[in-house]
């Protein structure tokens, strides 16, 4: 019997289908299914102990699955491991290098084990992660952020379709975190690589990712579009919260109060503002109704919930760790 998500699997670069991991009598991951498409950055979120690292290790082929399968470019991790794994680049823990060698020599060492990797490819990935200035330095002189970026460069050398990163910003200062975010977005855009990244920094995920996959107790809670890429997310919402700053506040209250598809949540008399819950697609109708009643509209602002607010709602108040 086909899995209900099999229709989308062909279009996805990375697909999880009913993936489970059981250790003894405890199910660490339970029937997890989601897709990652070409050129997108997807965040894997969940409270402490949700099964994020276990999931990432199964995708990378480091530990076995009890049930289900992972497909990379259509190849099964379970049954076509060699073909599937060649499409994956991953940093699961801190990347390790020869500290007494330069960054360039470390990449050359990896090239020696994979003879098809060209010198041009080394130069390409070095440019992608912004380490052109540091290739002649010994790795022991690198900052943590530089080592992380060198690790990503190494993971990209064999031109994978999927890049998997577990907490790539751990230990980085704010400038390093911002650099990492910018480089990952550049890599996804320029290389067309699908990136799956786990992190406990929700604000960072909100700025980096186009979608998030939220898991709790090893089970899928939701898959949502976020950030600048969430135009489609409005279609997922039943209602949005919109603040109207108007003239003639009482008339505005009457107009909105008579509309079936809107609810006035809050009125700020001094600021002449109304907070209204309505469907996103109904905002133009509301503006038209206010204008027809002669109510001046000075400002319309959608009040968006942060990813942290949404995360706490999705997980019943469990904080990420």
TrEMBL record:
Statement: the UniProt record of this protein carries the keyword Transport: yes
Q: Which Pfam families does this one have?
A: ABC_tran
* UniProt-recorded Gene Ontology molecular function terms: ATP binding; ATP hydrolysis activity
- Domain ABC transporter, by residue range, is 14-242
Instruction: Tell me the PROSITE patterns matching this sequence.
Output: ABC_TRANSPORTER_1, ABC_TRANSPORTER_2
Q: Which CDD domains match?
A: ABC_BcrA_bacitracin_resist
Q: Is the keyword ATP-binding assigned to this protein?
A: yes
Q: Which domain of life is it from?
A: Bacteria
InterPro entries linked to this entry: AAA+_ATPase, ABC_transporter-like_ATP-bd, ABC_transporter-like_CS, P-loop_NTPase
Fetch the SUPFAM superfamilies from UniProt. Answer: P-loop containing nucleoside triphosphate hydrolases
Keywords attached to this entry? ATP-binding, Nucleotide-binding, Transport
Q: Which family does it belong to?
A: Belongs to the ABC transporter superfamily.
User: What PANTHER family does this protein map onto?
Assistant: ABC TRANSPORTER, ATP-BINDING PROTEIN (PTHR43335)
Q: What is this protein called?
A: ABC transporter ATP-binding protein
Question: To which species is this protein native?
Answer: Paenibacillus mangrovi
């Amino acid at each position: 019997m086909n899995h209900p998500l099999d229709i989308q699997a062909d279009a996805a670069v990375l697909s999880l289908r009913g993936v489970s991991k059981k250790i003894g009598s405890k199910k660490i991951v339970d029937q997890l299914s989601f897709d990652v498409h070409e050129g997108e950055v997807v965040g894997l979120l969940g409270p402490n102990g949700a099964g994020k690292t276990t999931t990432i290790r199964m995708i990378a082929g480091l530990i076995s699955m009890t049930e289900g399968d992972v497909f990379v470019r259509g190849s099964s991790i379970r049954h076509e491991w060699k073909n599937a794994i060649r499409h994956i680049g991953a940093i699961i823990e801190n990347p390790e290098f020869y500290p007494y060698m330069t960054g360039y020599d470390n990449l050359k060492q990896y090239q020696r084990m994979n003879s098809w990797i060209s010198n041009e490819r080394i130069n390409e990935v070095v440019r992608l992660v912004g380490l052109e200035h540091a290739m002649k330095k010994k790795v022991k002189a690198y900052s943590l952020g530089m080592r992380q970026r060198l690790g990503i460069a190494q993971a990209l050398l064999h031109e994978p379709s999927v890049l998997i990163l577990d907490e790539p910003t751990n230990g980085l200062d704010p400038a390093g975190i911002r650099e990492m975010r910018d480089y990952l977005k550049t890599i996804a855009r320029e290389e067309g690589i699908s990136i799956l990244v786990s992190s406990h920094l929700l604000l960072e995920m909100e700025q980096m990712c186009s979608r998030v996959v939220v898991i709790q107790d090893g089970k899928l809670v939701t898959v949502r579009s976020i950030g600048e890429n969430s135009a489609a997310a409005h279609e997922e919402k039943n209602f949005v919260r919109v603040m109207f700053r108007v003239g003639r506040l009482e008339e505005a209250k009457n107009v909105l109060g008579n509309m079936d598809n809107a609810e006035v949540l809050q009125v700020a008399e001094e600021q002449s503002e109304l907070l209204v819950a309505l469907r996103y697609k109904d905002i133009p109708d509301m503006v038209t109704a206010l204008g027809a009643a002669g109510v001046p509209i000075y400002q319309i602002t959608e009040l968006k919930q942060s990813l942290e607010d949404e995360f706490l709602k999705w997980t019943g108040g469990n904080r990420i760790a």
